[in-house]
Q: What sequence folds into this?
């Protein structure tokens, strides 16, 4: 499928401001901006397996389109929500478990790049990945 493959972080846009809005402290924000994140994505029908590896952690996330699940960010923030497909976009609508605030995420292919856009409390950030 279109998202399948190994994706390495190339650059961030407004990521520090996004993390600050999320309540991530300055030290963790600086480290996260240079986390070396790599995603290995495999899609089988409506089931996705995403292996995340970075300087902080290595985890495997398995989810199905339209099925709610829980996820923990690298800083420990717990989320609950659902991924859906809207055209060629993978759209995630999540809520923080601690305060109920919404996080909207979109993963889409733009040219040869995987662009992940996050919106939290009006602050938008992007993480752009290149295929290895």
A:
């Amino acid at each position: 499928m279109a998202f399948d493959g190994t994706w390495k972080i190339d650059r961030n846009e407004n990521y520090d401001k996004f993390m600050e809005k999320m309540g991530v402290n300055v030290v963790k924000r600086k480290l996260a901006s240079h986390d070396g994140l790599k995603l290995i994505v495999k899609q089988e029908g409506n089931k996705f397996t995403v292996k995340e590896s970075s300087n902080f952690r290595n985890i495997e996330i398995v989810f199905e389109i339209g099925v709610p699940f829980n996820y923990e960010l690298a800083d420990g923030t717990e989320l609950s929500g659902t991924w859906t497909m809207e055209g060629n976009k993978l759209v995630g609508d999540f809520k923080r478990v601690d305060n109920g605030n919404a996080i909207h995420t979109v993963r889409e292919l733009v040219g040869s790049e995987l662009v992940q856009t996050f919106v939290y409390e009006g602050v938008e950030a992007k993480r752009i990945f290149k295929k290895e």
About this structure: The longest strand covers residues 5-13. Residues 37 and 130 are 11 Å apart (CA to CA). The two ends are 16 Å apart (CA to CA).
